């Protein structure tokens, strides 16, 4: 019985590894609980070296004390993303390896 179970698990692992990666679209809430307005919000899969476009858009600002829905739909199948926030005073906050697959909300604080 033990041999069959191990063989079945190995076959399942092999089958899962051969499936194509599935691109995802993830939504979560960004909460600006800092003293500053958020002017730019960039993301990138943690295994890449360049930031994507500003998720707030050309005219978007997330004011202090407010929240908004962020959508990441860049076609990646990765769960770990780096975040880069740029506040109205020019301060930058970089948060590496955020698991967006299990993220419901992210709060920015001072």
Report on this structure.
The protein is an alpha+beta fold. The chain is built from 1 helix and 6 strands; from the N terminus they run H-E-E-E-E-E-E. It has one helix spanning 2-18, and strands at residues 26-32, 38-45, 67-72, 80-87, 92-99, 105-108. The strands form 2 sheets. Strands 3-1-6 form a 3-stranded mixed β-sheet, with no helix packed on it. A 3-stranded antiparallel β-sheet has the order 2-4-5, with no helix packed on it. A hairpin with a 4-residue loop joins strand 4 (80-87) and strand 5. The longest helix has 17 residues, at 2-18. The radius of gyration is 19 Å and the shape is globular.
Compact summary:
This protein is an alpha+beta fold and 110 residues long. The protein is built from one helix and six strands; from the N terminus they run H-E-E-E-E-E-E.
Structural class: alpha+beta
Distance between the terminal alpha carbons, to the nearest Å?
57 Å
State which percent range the strand residues make up.
Answer: 35-45%
User: What Rg, in angstroms, do the CA atoms define?
Assistant: 19 Å
Outline type: globular
**Helicity range of the residues?**
10-25%
Describe the oligomeric state of these chains in a short phrase: single chain
- Please tally the β strands and state the result: 6
In N-to-C order, the SSE pattern is HEEEEEE
Stretches where pLDDT is under 50 for at least 5 consecutive residues are: 1-20
Largest sheet: 3 strands, mixed
């Amino acid at each position: 019985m033990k041999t069959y179970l191990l063989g079945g698990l190995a076959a399942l692992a092999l089958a899962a590894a051969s499936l194509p990666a599935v691109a995802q679209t993830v939504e979560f809430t960004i909460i600006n609980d800092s003293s500053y307005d958020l002017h730019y919000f960039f993301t990138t899969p943690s295994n890449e070296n360049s930031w994507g476009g500003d998720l707030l858009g050309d005219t978007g600002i997330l004011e202090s004390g407010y929240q908004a829905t962020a959508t990441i739909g860049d076609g990646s199948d990765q769960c770990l993303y780096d975040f880069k926030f740029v506040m109205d005073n020019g301060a930058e906050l970089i948060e590496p390896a955020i698991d967006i697959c299990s993220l419901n909300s992210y709060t920015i604080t001072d």
